[in-house]
Amino acid sequence: MAARDVVASLHDGMTIGIGGWGPRRKPMALVREILRSDLKDLTIVAYGGADVGMLCAAGKVRKLVFAFVSLDAIPLEPWFRKARESGQIEVLELDEGMFQWGLKAAAFGLPFLPTRVGLGTDLAELGGLRTVQSPYEDGETLIAMPALKLDAALIHANRSDWRGNVHLFGPDSYYDEWFARAAAKTYVSCEELVDRMEDHHPGDAHFNIVERCFVSGVVHMPCGAHPSSMPPAYGWDMKAFKAYADAAKDPGDWATVADRFVGASEQAYLESIGGKEAVAALPLPIF
Amino acid sequence: MTDITLAELCIFACSEAFRGNGEIIATGVGPVPRLAAGLAKLTHSPELLMTDGEAYLVEQPVPIGPRGYDDRKAAGHLPFSRFFDSAVWTGRRHAMVTPTQLDRFGQINLSYLGGSHAQPKTQMLGVRGFPGNTIYHPNSFFFPAHSPRVFVPGEVDMVSGVGYNPAKRVAGGNYSGVDLRRIVTNLCVMDFGGENADGNRAIRVVSLHPGVSFDEVQAATGFPLERGEIVETPLPDAQALEIIAALDPHGIRAGVIKDNPPARRP
Q: What class of enzyme is it (chain B) (predicted)?
């Protein structure tokens, strides 16, 4: 399918999960396609980076479910900050571990999963999280982490076939497979699309992070994680992140800079950043 | 030999937090805590596990700052996708971090400052993994600028990490994993071994950096401190300094504390 078909299947008011982690392996091309659309009033569920910042800046977000929003080397995501400090978005703030627990509850069709995490902090009160008591002898009081059910999830992978046999080559899947299992529909963008995985890469099946029954559609989008990182193909584009962060201060108005960071089309966007060669040349980050 | 810096003294003091922890993941976030974890592993506590800052476990701590990508030699794998299963929710970790605020209960904040949760005056990172870290495994803290803006009067603006605040504990909750260990600042080392008038745990000063007085520390703290059996914070030895230099070849530690002062005040 094409990115525009993915976005056409989404509706105003939906709850959408976005894979990746901060500035790492975000499905940015699909996010840009949302930014080019009229979609609005979204609930976004993400370990946030520029995906969250851009969607907030563009006024697409009604509610955000998050544990952090950060670009790592630029710790505080400036467009997210603006949205928060103007009070324009509703939030459910969670611990990173509770967040994946909520995705797992959704994946298993459970109303909640119990956890100690959140006790002793302000999270439960601010998020309206309730407690449950163990029915066994211990009688322990636990937070009931509600299921984070997603109408759709977006993830970006190194390789896939049209059936949705997805391969990830990086060292970390983050929680992408749980986003996929928690979602009614999951759309995968990929760097490389093959027709039948078994004909081309039968020896690589261990790179398959989630079974294809959890994948509803696949879009071929080379460089689709830019400006986030896509190991081992390319690193994050810190220059692009910096320009994006600086634009939050000057001019500070998304409408006037959106074209620079989104582009009229994905092709126009890729050309504006120097094409596929420039993305391929981005070094992998070191820590 | 150049003068020992206060940052180096702090790294040495922070590394003590990881002594005798056993086979757990030592996580130091930020240059001083990370160098401290590496120093601990290379000296008194080789059994510590640590990551390369990303997804792999290494037995040789990775130096900080620019270097060739392939310097890292992975011995094990600990991606974010396994982090809660393996490190946090099993209690097999000790993290040293720098929150924005810490109060007398050891409650910490890195979510937002001022205003309300619906509309913060200053939005920061969000709670990240702090609620889970603080209820499941030991935590220590490093602050490069000891002040009442960090060690706040009253309570932190948003409780992002569990402390020893009785008012925040629900009946039947299991808080046995709450284990706040050491606080190292540019002035002193503190722990949570004190006891206040209500019989609750309180923060106490256990060592003062050379030339610093208890009164100076108290004046820079927004709540009353207890006095432990206060000693002078020891200076790092030659071996420690050599390891610190090797783990920080670009001298990033010189930028951590304002004006990079010497360990001994002139």
A: transferase
